[in-house]
Amino acid sequence: MDGRVQKCVNRWLKNLYQVDYVDVTTAPGPVRILASGEPEYLAASIQRCPTVSVEKHCSPAVAIVAHHDCAVNPLTRETQIERLLQAGERLRNLFPELDIRLLWVDENWKVHEIRAQE
Fold it and tell me: Which residues pair with 13 in a beta bridge?
């Protein structure tokens, strides 16, 4: 939801996938919601969005983003990354055919890809 994050993430994804557009789903605290599955109606809503993006816009990947200074998920970087990994696992289970990217945006608005071993 945080507009400060969208520009740098969109630029990163456009560069990585060599695309002109990025579909964006915004919600307050999507990492927290996907990691826990609660509230269920919000998790279901967020989970539906990649289906539309893939089926109608041929999107090659889905990225989920956690970031510094999150108002809804004001946790340490380490805790946010733990939740990001959990959210990523949920998305991988739902969309095994997709390239799922887990991104952390730091206090300088630099995008870092997070992998399970970090």
Answer: none
